[in-house]
Design goal:
alpha/beta; 20 helices; single chain; 3-stranded parallel β-sheet; 15 strands; 4-stranded parallel β-sheet
Amino acid sequence: MAYVDNTMIIRRDLLSKMAELFNEGKFNEGLDRIPLEMAPRRKQDLDRCCVFKERVIIKEKLIPLLGFDLEDDRDELKTLAEYAAEALERKNPINKILTVVDEACTSCVKNSYIVTNLCKGCVAHPCMMNCPKSAISWNANGQAQIDPKTCINCGICMNVCPYHSIIFMPVPCENACPVGAISKDQYGIEQIDEDKCIDCGKCITACPFGSIMENSQIVDVMKSIKDEETETIAIVAPAVIGQFKSTTDTVLGAIKQLGFCDVIEVAKGANVTTEREADELLERLEDKAPFMTTSCCPAYVSATEKHIPEIQKYVSETKSPMYYAAEIAREKYPNAKIVFIGPCIAKRREGMKDPNVDYVMTFEELSALFHGWNIEISKEEPLLLDKSILNHGRAYAASGGVAQSVLEVKPYVNIKPVIVNGLDKKKIKMLKAFGKTGKTSGNFVEVMACEGGCIAGPSSNFDPKTGSKLYEKNLAALIESLDD
């Protein structure tokens, strides 16, 4: 799902600069200078109309990264230093996941079909002849033109044009959202409907202007780490294996070097999930249930609650690996602040509901901490890995990993996996059909919102292909080292 582009680089630069300032004790006064440093007065390679708009957008993007929502009634003269002071004083993060930066949103045109200059003005006129609303006419140049007020976006004209001169121009974030949670307000700015949003994060990577931002908890995490009176524990998702070009034990050692008192692999919780999910599947099949779906992906679970009620009765009641890992951490460290680290935005929502999880930090934010706090992963002392963790727990991060784990733990259960690799509009409809009919091609439906699985989450460090190769390589090396 994630891929490299300039908006992603800018976001990571902002996070790194925040981390660096925090580490140097210059957080409050230094933040106000970031827009000036990133957009100096005579900068030639501007992405926008002028340096002043560039600065405003950088400031507006820093506000959600500081953990605040961009409310319409906010004081626009309020400085970043003032926001920083509030962030350092707050007790709990805000209860919102995503924010649209109005100034960065360029008000993309409404989804529509566009006639390009490839139009030959042919005599056949198939686009006009087949338009059900007579929305196509001919301009003075003898080329077709589409009336946007009449067009219903059926796409017939594009399909019948012999020169492929008509194209569909979507709004990227709206097009990427699998549940239709994004639309324009009266000012042409995209708005996210909280009642529909499943926090999958597809809109973040889809927006070519970087106008959709997470409300980060990185300041809360840094405060906790630096507080000598607070015990801070990191629980790290299995997807960490595909996030860095270093061995897993070295990465976990680097995380501890940041100041965490202990680092626990969420794979330990995944072992619990596998056992319980396998037992639950067996019970359901014995009770003649046609199938069961997984419950590990919080974006999918949210989708069932908001958009696919038909399938809810088939969703596993077993908790996610994060839940069980946090439970293990809380039992061992009852008074600690527990921080989940992973590639997933939807985990922020799950973390807000979990009494054992205090903060959620993404791999993107973790990389910013490494960079800003001058932690070189390759030079850190490796962490001794927990040999009680069974290998299947570390395999959860890839699509199909949950089914593979259940098959490994309970080979005698007659499991016939159905892998739903990524959620989009078509797969939402497919899952609705599963729920309505009670029929699938198998009996164990594993659903991951991100194509490729958690290793391709919206806050991953690599694109899905690179992350997958790195994951397979590092997982093989990890298993080999543990077997020695």
